[in-house]
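Hi V.,

You were right to ask for the full record rather than a summary. Here it is.
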Amino acid sequence: MAYLASPKATKEIIEQFQFVFQKRFGQNFLVDANILEKIVQAADITEEDFVLEIGPGIGTMTQYLCESAGQVVAVEIDRMLIPILNDTLSEYDNVEIIQEDILKADLYALLQKRSHNRPIKVVANLPYYITTPIIMRLFESGIEIENITIMVQKEVAERMQTGPGSKDYGALSLAVQYYADAKVELLVSASCFMPRPNVDSAVIKLTRHPKPAVEVNDEKLMFQIIRASFNQRRKTLVNGLKNASGLSFSKEQVAAALQKIGKPETVRGEALTLSEFAMLTNELSRNIGE
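Predicted structure:
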């Protein structure tokens, strides 16, 4: 079995298939076997598991996943990589390669139907520019995903873990905390990739809560309020929410709701915890339809 987790092996495959890196897909291939082993270990992959890998590239991490998991589905957007994957993964009978955009894929068909009641885990080396949409799509799918272990830009990983008051605190922080427990497993230098990116990365594991971290009457409304709160960070919540697209609350309604949860009119979204956003949503939802 020829492993791909080295600069030499990766370069040989790229040259063999005359592959050209596509900047629009944010392609950076891992070339460090030690890091790959740690990712699979962090994801807690066993032969009982069904694993979705997003963005397998040339199959470097897929090889490790196939050797640990019961079944692997690797979804790759770049059709030029499919012949390479068919070659590099030819020795494994527990992998299915699908050429598709994960943001447009039917996740139910992709995961629920194929998993046959196995625990579902997601592993990915995500392009930085679509990290948030992919994470949110997985969480909001309603599919019971046990955990998501992903390589992301170091600053994005920090954003997922941070709390109120930090400049990194925002809609992504709150969304991740609502659905999962976030833990940075390891930091990864830019030198571990080919081609080398401009930033360092981190592997973060998101372990799904059995139920959301807070109770809220209208989950969709809460995330509308959260997004509106951080779209205009410098504005108070009273001013930010009254002008927000898709929301129809008056300044007076927002001020009254804030008062009910013990917050002043001058408060900004970055000062509220997830629990406080849930309380604010519950208060504001009473005004809908009145």
